[in-house]
């Protein structure tokens, strides 16, 4: 037993000093990289051209699928239901959007993979590990490898693939742009008009007290008071009441005519009664604080202050516009009525807003 162990000692000693592992039959010897086997596309130009056409076809299909996505979004009714086996009854729009977008993205990925496996260089290059911070030689070597890889990819030489890839990548983001339409309905002219737009000189709208839900007469508005009103016909039971009152809410003040500084504002009122939008022109908070002596209205959110005796101009705070004013008068029965919409859009300022 001891004799056998002594015979093995020199061999172990030699291995520890770097003796060739193959000499002693080390089963874990590094076999190295297998010999490179050329692909068919490497030796047959016709096969390479066929692969190029296949890749380009996938990119073209991606572009067509993106166009199909946009066409489906524009043409299919959101409420349309269809039966598709084995899914059952599904939304036609959702199914069309999912299929077209899925095909568009899949073809880009499949085309890129097929390109890499058939036309790009497949030589394996071993590299030793190195410190995280590379020296100049390593950096230069990486740059050269990148240039070599770019040249071997055929990206510059195979224009058909390059152009169709650019086309598919340029069209796919349009799917996301189209989906932005689902953020909500287009405002159209809703930002420019309120429920008071229904009022006309030939068919004026009465002002209804928000608390009593009754039409108001001029004598109901006491000098120095602040009263809130809504247009006739707008009821709290209406499904869209909250949306409408957010634009239609009105505040009435009565100021001695001689104290009204702005002549245009005085002409839009009736015997010192002025009607202004209750919605602050900063971020749309409801204004509810009124200083009787100064005729100032204060927004409680950010302290924007408006001088109601001077056309509701801003005298303090972040608001960018005066409060829009509603032209009022009285009908034959003496009730306060509006003869048209506000003179400017109601609510927060925005860059398109008329000044």
TrEMBL record:
UniProt entry keywords in alphabetical sequence: 2Fe-2S, Cell membrane, Disulfide bond, Electron transport, Iron, Iron-sulfur, Membrane, Metal-binding, Oxidoreductase, Respiratory chain, Transmembrane, Transmembrane helix, Transport
Spans annotated as Disordered: 1-38
Lipid bilayer topology: Multi-pass membrane protein
Pfam families: QcrA_N, Rieske
Superkingdom in the source lineage: Bacteria
Keyword Transmembrane: yes
Membrane-spanning residues: 55-76, 96-116, 160-180
Family under the similarity heading: Belongs to the Rieske iron-sulfur protein family.
Complex formation: The cytochrome bc1 complex is composed of a cytochrome b (QcrB), the Rieske iron-sulfur protein (QcrA) and a diheme cytochrome c (QcrC) subunit.
Protein name, per record: Cytochrome bc1 complex Rieske iron-sulfur subunit
Organism: Kitasatospora setae (strain ATCC 33774 / DSM 43861 / JCM 3304 / KCC A-0304 / NBRC 14216 / KM-6054) (Streptomyces setae)
Gene: qcrA
